[in-house]
Design brief:
This is Probable succinyl-diaminopimelate desuccinylase. The chain is α+β, with helices and mostly antiparallel strands and 382 residues long. The chain has helices at 6-18, 26-39, 103-122, 144-151, 202-217, 263-279, 302-315, 330-333, 363-381; strands at residues 44-48, 54-62, 66-72, 92-94, 97-99, 129-136, 160-163, 167-175, 177-186, 190-191, 230-238, 244-245, 248-257, 284-292, 295-296, 320-324, 343-347, 360-362. Bound molecules: zinc ion.
């Protein structure tokens, strides 16, 4: 029999917080979890995504239902470390909070999933079904890891999915998509005393971006849960000398999409408008740098109902059930699933805390989610 003590749980968390899995170091987190699974006889598999980045998949049980549980191993950069009250890569407890980069987003959630797997296996508690643990790489930078898992078929037979992203008081069952475009306008350099000898790359790009902004943000389509699509131009670079006509201007934009106005339609609108500009002598090119579709499910499932009950039991919170503007790996993992698919994002931590200096997770919630996850699995598989 194995029941992890709170001390052990803190040691594991401290170990993985110490791994600086900011871009490309997730492999060390994967190796750490793999070793932990090995110790308890759970087979796990490193799934390479790029030369340096990997996912980790582990499985226990057999047959139905197949429950997918997922979390990402990467964290965002700590930023200016001197702004932190304690070292971001040393788990530090103050006032019932556990501080460190990734405590909240989302190593506490990820670790709980892994430890629950081990207890279920070790104590023979899982009577029916399969639990597939999927730890991903690169969630924070476009979801390359989850895309690979989807493409390799790891989601094909999955019947429930939850992502342990931080959201301890709200179960998220739908979220917007996210689309990044890089738009390059090519002109021709000239001296600014004779602009007609060149072609100013900035002018058409400015007009184009404002036109797109008006068209997209002015669109009236609305999702009942996610509201409207939003688009923002977030980067604009051009020119290098004040008396030269710029030969190149590059802008980047981010669009948060909804099922009624999806990534493909947005890309098409951008392309069509660029073609129209180009017919008038501009040279505007579109590059899609990231495309994650929105996730829309009904939120009506045994899983969500049970998770809400367990939230009351272990957190003493009235968990709300909502849609969210943020994206998760579910954008990739749920490709081709319909709206009746039971999905949720529910985990220790607060969504608003993600990516902040002095990131923390409440110790009490870290421990509580272990029990929530375990009972949830037992409830869905009994
Ligand atoms: Zn996250």
């Amino acid at each position: 029999m194995k029941y992890f003590t709170e001390e052990e749980k803190l040691t594991f968390l401290s170990d993985i917080i110490a791994i600086k899995s900011v871009n490309e170091n997730e492999i060390q987190v994967a190796n750490y979890l793999k070793a932990l699974f090995d110790e308890y006889g759970i087979e796990s598999k490193i799934v390479p995504v790029t030369k340096t980045r990997v996912n980790l998949v582990a499985e226990i049980g057999s047959g139905h239902p197949v429950i997918g549980i997922s979390g990402h191993m990467d964290v965002v950069s700590p930023g200016d470390e001197s702004e932190w009250s304690s070292d971001p890569f040393t788990l530090t407890e103050r006032d019932g909070k556990l501080f460190g980069r990734g405590t909240n987003d989302m190593k506490a959630g990820l670790l709980n999933l892994a430890l629950v797997m081990i207890e279920l296996k070790e104590n023979n508690e899982l009577k029916n079904g399969t639990i597939r643990f999927m730890a991903t790489t690169g969630e924070e930078v476009g979801g390359a890891g989850s895309k690979k898992l989807y493409e390799d078929g790891y989601m094909d037979d999955v019947e429930y999915l939850w992502v342990a992203e931080p959201s301890h008081d709200t179960i998220i069952y739908a979220h917007k998509g996210s689309l990044n475009l890089r738009i390059t306008s090519i002109g021709e350099a000239a001296h600014s005393s004779m602009p007609h000898h060149g072609y100013n790359a900035i002018n058409p790009l400015m007009a184009y971006l404002l036109e797109m902004d008006e068209k997209l943000n002015g669109d009236n389509r609305k999702n009942e849960v996610l509201d409207k699509l939003v688009m923002s131009t977030t980067i604009f670079n051009a020119g290098n000398q004040v008396n030269s006509i710029p030969e190149k201007a590059v802008a980047e934009i981010n669009v948060r999409t909804i099922p009624e106005f999806d990534n493909e339609e947005v890309i098409e609108i951008f392309r069509t408008a660029a073609n129209n500009y180009n017919k008038e002598g501009s040279n505007i090119n579109i590059e899609v740098t990231m495309s994650l579709p929105s996730v829309f499910t009904t939120g009506q499932s045994k899983m969500v109902t049970l998770a809400k009950e367990l939230g009351k039991k272990y957190l003493d919170l009235d968990i709300s059930i909502k849609g969210s503007p943020g994206v998760t790996d579910a954008s990739n993992l749920l490709r081709n699933k319909d709206e009746n698919f039971p999905f949720m994002m529910f985990g220790p931590g607060e969504t608003k805390m993600a990516h902040k200096t002095d990131e923390y997770v409440y110790k009490e919630y870290y421990f509580a989610f272990f029990h929530i996850y375990k009972e949830l699995i037992l409830g869905l598989t009994k």
